[in-house]
Recover the amino acids of this structure.
């Protein structure tokens, strides 16, 4: 069998090697991912800024087109056609085309479909082909790039602004050089591989840079791609991932050298640590063997103050806790047996009384004493329910019936001293609770509250359900409990020890049995006001039959 030292060295070596490989691969993947995400973020943010610049460029030309179609000379010429002798607007068009904007040619078409402009007439087929589109857009501006590869065309319908603004009197076409757009592309380009394309959404308008995008057309994954839509236009931009990731290659090579040195240092450290670890483990192994045969008083000698030393300290504390737990379990078992015995003694085993009580019942009825017969019958049924075949958990309905017979007996015994009432929701009748809970509490209310009262008293027992908890309350309007005495009773109920002189056997018995069966979260809650009355509330978790 291989030694622990050999296994530690072998496994730590493999682990270190795998860890170095994982670090390298993870670094490469994460660093590449980080670079690409940053590049994409910068690329997108610059594209957003470029969109704003393009939007301003677009706005300038659209406002310029509005200025042309609003020109008084042009409006007069188009609205008076065909009576336009001596009103040729070509000179005005030349003046507009001579401004600093990149307008190459300006054309207008009158109602007779005559082309007037600052450029050659060979554009006429293109323009007349776009008239139907201008009509469809009803005066809105249309951008198009179908004329040639170095320009875009802005065209729109012209309305009569002199007489009837709803009357169409012609069309305007502006041929714009796209060099300005390419300059904007260059201004916002992050590196030499980045390319841009500007498209109109829903028409043929496009300004694009030919380049590496077409090389990757079938391998789109090799590009970082951003796309932004703004006011009917779409700006797309791409960057070659391989170019973006060039800086990671040198960094990865340096990382490999660092990992090699780290691997060598780790192997040396493993050799040293394995010797220290195995020594302390051998000491712990011998002591744990003693724990295994029940010698929990044995302790591990602490050789070094490190993780292994702290583990040895923890094992020593664990042995101490196990000793304490064993003692606590023994104490609780003795207490549990004592409570069970007390419960049986308190209930009184009724077997030997059944026949006697039946005989007394028959004699009482024979002599016509119905009150004695009723009392004896209730006592007999009380004992039978109290035994309940030795079962610990009984239905709520049986516990209530047991209480009912007890109160019948007490009401006969203490005639006219108090009245009682039981109000238990029918929905909880079939739920299970530990037996002999309500009767001791009712007895406590009668003996310590109602019997000492000089006037007629009342006792009310209620039971209900709230979500997963069953509640019982025993309320009397007896003499109540003084605040000092009440504090003493609550303190005693929360104590682990039994003190019958302070709180009485019945209260303590019920309280301790609830804690033993349901846990420390469940117990009795007593509230009382001197000379007003007392209320005892019991909360138990729901147990279905």
């Amino acid at each position: 069998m291989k030694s622990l030292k050999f296994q530690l060295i072998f496994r730590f070596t493999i682990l270190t090697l795998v860890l170095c490989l994982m670090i390298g691969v993870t670094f490469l993947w994460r660093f590449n991912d980080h670079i690409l995400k940053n590049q994409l973020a910068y690329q997108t943010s610059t594209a957003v800024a470029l969109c704003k610049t393009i939007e301003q460029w677009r706005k300038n030309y659209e406002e310029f087109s509005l200025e042309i179609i609003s020109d008084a000379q042009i409006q007069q010429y188009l609205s008076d056609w065909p009576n336009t002798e001596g009103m040729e607007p070509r000179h005005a068009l030349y003046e507009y085309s001579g401004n600093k904007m990149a307008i190459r040619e300006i054309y207008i078409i009158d109602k007779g479909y005559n082309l007037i402009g600052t450029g050659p007439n060979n554009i006429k087929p293109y323009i007349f082909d776009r008239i139907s589109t201008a009509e469809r857009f009803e005066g809105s501006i249309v951008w198009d790039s179908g004329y040639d590869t170095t320009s875009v065309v802005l065209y729109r319908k012209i309305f009569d602004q002199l007489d009837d603004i709803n009357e169409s009197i012609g069309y305007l076409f502006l041929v714009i050089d796209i060099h300005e757009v390419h300059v904007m592309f260059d201004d916002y380009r992050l590196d030499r591989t980045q390319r841009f394309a500007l498209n109109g959404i829903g028409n043929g308008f496009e300004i694009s840079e030919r380049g590496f995008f077409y090389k990757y057309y079938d391998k789109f994954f090799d590009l970082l791609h951003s796309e932004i839509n703004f006011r009917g236009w779409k700006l797309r931009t791409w960057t070659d991932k391989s170019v973006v990731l060039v800086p990671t290659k040198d960094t990865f090579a340096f990382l490999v050298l660092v990992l090699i040195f780290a691997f060598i240092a780790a192997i040396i450290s493993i050799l040293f640590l394995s010797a220290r670890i195995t020594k302390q483990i051998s000491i712990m192994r011998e002591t744990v063997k003693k724990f295994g045969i029940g010698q929990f008083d044995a302790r591990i000698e602490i050789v070094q103050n490190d993780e292994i030393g702290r583990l040895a300290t923890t094992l020593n504390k664990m042995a101490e806790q196990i000793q304490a737990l064993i003692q606590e379990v023994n104490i609780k078992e003795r207490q549990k047996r004592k409570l069970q015995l007390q419960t049986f003694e308190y209930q009184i085993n009724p077997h030997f009384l059944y026949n006697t009580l039946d005989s007394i019942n028959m004699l009482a009825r024979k002599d016509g004493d119905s009150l004695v017969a009723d009392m004896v019958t209730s006592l007999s049924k009380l004992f039978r329910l109290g035994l309940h075949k030795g079962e610990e958990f009984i239905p709520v309905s049986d516990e209530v019936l047991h209480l009912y017979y007890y109160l019948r007996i007490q009401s006969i015994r203490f005639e006219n001293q108090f009245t009682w009432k039981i109000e238990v929701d029918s929905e909880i009748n079939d739920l299970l609770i530990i037996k002999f809970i309500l009767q001791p509490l009712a007895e406590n209310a009668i003996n310590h509250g109602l019997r000492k009262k000089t006037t007629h008293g009342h006792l009310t027992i209620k039971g209900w359900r709230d979500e997963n908890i069953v509640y019982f309350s025993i309320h009397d309007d007896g003499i109540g409990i003084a605040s000092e005495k009440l504090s003493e009773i609550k303190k005693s109920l929360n104590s682990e020890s039994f003190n019958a002189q302070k709180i009485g056997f019945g209260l303590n018995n019920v309280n301790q049995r609830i804690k033993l069966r349901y846990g420390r979260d469940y117990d009795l809650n007593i509230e009382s006001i001197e000379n007003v009355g007392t209320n005892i509330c019991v909360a138990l978790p729901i147990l279905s039959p």
In short: The longest strand covers residues 168-177. The chain is about 55% helix and 20% strand. The two ends are 56 Å apart (CA to CA).
